[in-house]
Amino acid sequence: MSKLTLKLSQQQKLSPQQIQFVKLLQVPTAELAARIEEELEENPALEEGSDENWEEKVENVEDLGREELEVDDYLQDDYAGYKMAGDSYDPNEETKERPIAVVPSSEEFLMMQVGFVVNSEREEIIAQQLIGSLEDDGYLRRNLESIVNDLEFTIGFVTTLDEVKSVLKKVQQIDPPGIAARDLQECLLIQLHRKSHGEEEMEMAIEIIEKYFDEFTKKHFTQLKQKLGLSEEAFKKVIQIITHLNPRPGGQTDGDFAPIIQPDFIVSQSAGKLDVKLNGKNAPELKVSRAFQEMLQTYDKGDKQNKEVKEAVTFIKHKLDSASWFIQAIQQRHATLLKTMQSIVQLQYDFFLSGDDAQLKPMKMKAIAELIEMDVSTVSRVVSSKSVQTDFGIYPLKYFFSEGITNASGEDFSVRELKNILREIIESEPGDDPYSDEQLEELLLERGFVVKRRTVAKYREQMGIPVARLRKST
């Protein structure tokens, strides 16, 4: 005989509005426009445009529904057909792929810029042939004589080697810097000349790549310092400029994705102060449809007991609620994103002023969560797939979070900074007798960092630096 039991339990469930907000929080700026467009197509009560009084109007509609209409009387099982997206929450829905913003391919991105650097139709034809001959990493390894022949045999276009060389110089002016270089040396020089504004260190970096490229690639740094007459500190700054250049300007992109990142935040400095703002390019202003609000206000002109009137009122009310909730979720998303980014900038202020990795402090998501008085999971969703544009480049938000390590004097350093120190030691090692992991451990200890040999090996491998015997120059 079966027994009848009664069990009382408490469960925490997210409201439809909370579910919608959580989903929007994870969406990066590049995909936000697609998500808004999807909602605009599904909900006719939601429109593009600004309406300063939309909140007041929505409140009036809600009051109308509660006090005069008593909409709850209409919300019977037979008529509650329309649900806002997210009313019935399915845990498996989180695993669905979000729409990806399709952008021009790498080749299309380069072709779009050609018109800004060429002066004639002839030059444009040659430029297109050059771009079409680039390899995935952005280099032009096909010799120019062959390109002259390709143009003549494929499209009957007759040109000269000098003309192709002239157009190539113009193609090398487009972004990303270093594109269409014929070798690594030319690639680095293009980037250095683009960055140079007459600074002594930049000019010295150009001289190294132009005149002493072979010594640089073989890491004969002691000889270079002597030839250039530089101090240890000045030489390190010059080498740092070179090592921060991009040796693969074409990147790893393939298919329908261009090597462009749409930043979610923009951090700029003016007069020594930092300004943090959201990148709102892909977020159009939204408002609740006035026509739908007026439609709901005409309910009293119909028969309230009529089934069709009940269905119409239920449909309109749900659509208006959905539009109101979506606008509020977008506004809440913006506020949460901005609050989180401001906290990150507050903790990493020195880095955003200088762009120096050595200024990065150890930082965990828990610290940000405490600052903004929100859960760590919220911070995690904000950080996921988001990036920030600074005066020194574009960085993923995850770049600013790292574990910390304490040196002998009790100072806290980020693991990233320790890796940079380790890289500097390896870069300044004798080319004919590179340091082993045991020696690197001892050298770090001399600087006050207690790091085991296995940890040194792990950090070295993470930075893509080979073992000592493979670093030895012949």
From TrEMBL:
<dbReference type="GO" id="GO:0000428">
    <property type="term" value="C:DNA-directed RNA polymerase complex"/>
</dbReference>
<dbReference type="InterPro" id="IPR007634">
    <property type="entry name" value="RNA_pol_sigma_54_DNA-bd"/>
</dbReference>
<feature type="domain" description="RNA polymerase sigma factor 54 DNA-binding">
    <location>
        <begin position="314"/>
        <end position="472"/>
    </location>
</feature>
<dbReference type="InterPro" id="IPR000394">
    <property type="entry name" value="RNA_pol_sigma_54"/>
</dbReference>
<dbReference type="GO" id="GO:0003677">
    <property type="term" value="F:DNA binding"/>
</dbReference>
<dbReference type="Pfam" id="PF04963">
    <property type="entry name" value="Sigma54_CBD"/>
</dbReference>
<dbReference type="Pfam" id="PF00309">
    <property type="entry name" value="Sigma54_AID"/>
</dbReference>
<keyword id="KW-0804">Transcription</keyword>
<protein>
    <submittedName>
        <fullName>RNA polymerase sigma-54 factor</fullName>
    </submittedName>
</protein>
<dbReference type="GO" id="GO:0006352">
    <property type="term" value="P:DNA-templated transcription initiation"/>
</dbReference>
<comment type="similarity">
    <text>Belongs to the sigma-54 factor family.</text>
</comment>
<keyword id="KW-0238">DNA-binding</keyword>
<dbReference type="GO" id="GO:0016987">
    <property type="term" value="F:sigma factor activity"/>
</dbReference>
<keyword id="KW-0808">Transferase</keyword>
<dbReference type="GO" id="GO:0016779">
    <property type="term" value="F:nucleotidyltransferase activity"/>
</dbReference>
<dbReference type="Pfam" id="PF04552">
    <property type="entry name" value="Sigma54_DBD"/>
</dbReference>
<keyword id="KW-0548">Nucleotidyltransferase</keyword>
<keyword id="KW-0805">Transcription regulation</keyword>
<dbReference type="InterPro" id="IPR007046">
    <property type="entry name" value="RNA_pol_sigma_54_core-bd"/>
</dbReference>
<dbReference type="InterPro" id="IPR038709">
    <property type="entry name" value="RpoN_core-bd_sf"/>
</dbReference>
<keyword id="KW-0731">Sigma factor</keyword>
<feature type="domain" description="RNA polymerase sigma factor 54 core-binding">
    <location>
        <begin position="104"/>
        <end position="291"/>
    </location>
</feature>
<keyword id="KW-0240">DNA-directed RNA polymerase</keyword>
<dbReference type="GO" id="GO:0001216">
    <property type="term" value="F:DNA-binding transcription activator activity"/>
</dbReference>
